[in-house]
Amino acid sequence: MEMYRSHVLVCAGAGCISSACKSVQTALMEHIDKHGLGKEVKVVETGCMGPCDLGPVVMIFPDGVFYRKLKPEDAAEIVSEHLLKGKVVQRLLHQPVGQTEKVTSFDQLDFFKRQTRIALRNTGVINPESVEEYIARDGYRALGQALSQMTPQQVVDTIKESGLRGRGGAGFPTGLKWEFTARATGSPKYVVCNADEGDPGAFMDRSILEGDPHSVLEAMAICGYAIGAAKGYIYVRAEYPLAVERLETAIAKAREYGLLGTNIFGTGFDFDVEIRVGAGAFVCGEETALLASIEGQRGEPRPKPPFPAQAGLWGKPTVINNVETWANVPPIILKGAQWFASIGTEKSKGTKVFALAGKVNNTGLVEVPMGTTLREIIFDIGGGIPGGKKFKAVQTGGPSGGCIPAEYLDTPVDYESLSKLGTIMGSGGMIIVDEDTCMVDLAKFFLEFVQEESCGKCAPCRIGTKRMLEILERITTGRGREGDIELLEELSQVIKSSALCGLGQTAPNPVLSTLRYFRSEYESHIRDKKCPAGACRSMLAYYINPEACKGCGLCSKLCPTEAITGEKKQPHVIDPDKCIKCGTCFEKCKFNAITTVN
Amino acid sequence: MKSLDELDKLRQKLQQDMQVRDNDHEVRVTVSMGTCGIAAGAREIVQAMLEELKEQGLNNVALTQTSCVGLCQHEPLLEVARGGEKTTYINVDREKAREIVRKHLVQGQVIKDWTNPEK
Questions:
Q1: Which of B50, B64, B67 sits opposite A62 (nearest CB)?
Q2: Are B21 and A148 an interchain contact pair (Cβ–Cβ within 8 Å)?
Q3: Assigned domain for A1 exists
Q4: Alpha-carbon gap, residue B117 to B119, rounded angstroms
Q5: What is chain B's Cα-based Rg?
Q6: What are A247-289's pLDDT values in tens digits?
């Protein structure tokens, strides 16, 4: 590789790609060429840096300057001022909410300062398409060390002692899973990576695959050595085309360097990885359904036991871990079990990546030690709630999880404390909602999702979630009846205890947890026909303020049901019987004369 | 990959390119690149510095630039900062730049003659 005095890192994570980072990158390269800086300045495309709401973002080294919300037009100034003359372009710096000063260097940002990056150690730092950059950051060293200095049992023991638990949802101890598979009889054995991330709002696995694909390959090879497998599969959803592409590049490069294939590190160990692209059914994230899908069967789950450790792919012993779990493995081998176990809480070791989404100032990916409180994650790193609104709840764990209200903001986040609150860590999605969100509506959203994604194999999930959804629809449209809450609870319990797989067993969780903390909202929908958050449209009445109405007639023209009448230049009125509450008049009125009454 | 040694050797070679992205450089070399600096040939100084740093295989040197520091008549200017100590070289040219890398950065000898205006 050539030596450059400056590296310009352009974030090419999914978030920045959708905010057009490519055109910024192209413009930067054009201007760098124009000024003849091509030999001094290198432009590097990286995976997701984390602060997605600020995209496209660029970091310039060695100064560590962080520019945000760039447009292609900004490239000329960055090159002529910063790269040529060393002057930081003030107007492109980030000014965090509530702070009076702009931040020059990324390590001054609270967003980065408070993070501990293990799984995301390379994401946003290296070029994911360069195995050389991965190697320069100690890549494949853990594999080399494991193969040439450790026995398979020692590798298993190291993972066990580290206390690493599955980052995909249930939090099962990873080392134990490996041990079961290593001891199981049956040959050949397999290693599988679950990259079927499907929780609404979660994108940590996607970012790791797109930003640091080699870390997953290396970890799978380490596991292969530990359990005696020579073959690995990565099951990645088709909706992640960039992840698939970068994985393909990574596998090809690793084979070229002899880091995958035969006789790796001259130790006689063979291991190779293949990609399987899943068509994006949520249930395929469920391990038994995923394995069936790799085999070419319908992606439907089967009862456990037997667990995949005993009978997985083609009935053979199989380790299946999720992407983030894999990304933690190489650093544990390199730095030791004790190092990893010293981070986090007593029962939850290490760090967790969270995807912040919803009503929070800084959306994006953050990695923090287990035991960090929700308040720190949402307010210190996430920058709090936008628009001066009040925090209402945080939904964790996706459709299998639940929501946590404000009174528990100081809860340290780990597997146990979340489950005590009636939710789960899950994959790490965190959807933050403010006072304008109706909790019944939120529960309905998640139930709608699982109802659509149910594979239909078992009745409780197929029919039960459908009935629950119908009740929720009734409640949110003002047709709720006495007894609906009790019915929801009963259905929830039955589905939880009788569904075949994790998807069905956890499907009622969003309803149960909103009932637990926000029962009064359900009650006012049912009894008073009112939505306290003012979010359920059909419960609102639209009303024209006669003093503000100029009689322009726009609303009556737009009204699809001719519910609005009035003389020109005279205040108009809405006939509540004809109004279908579509909200068009409310949105289009130029004089803010239309209001909603709860 | 035939052995762990082979990987380690490759890694050391590759790390040189990546060290730009570390934030804890021992030594920081700053070239003044205001209009005055560029007009006096600062661009060439940067090129020469880069070439020599590579030849000497120096890790942990950050080569950055700044704008006019107000001594326009002494451009090109180059500052070497190591720990708390700072040295400003004036009227640098390609050859001087290479010599600064060899003497100052490799051997730790400040070349005093080039820090004062020539009489």
A1: B64
A2: no
A3: no
A4: 6
A5: 16
A6: 999 999 999 999 999 999 999 999 999 999 998 889 999 999 9
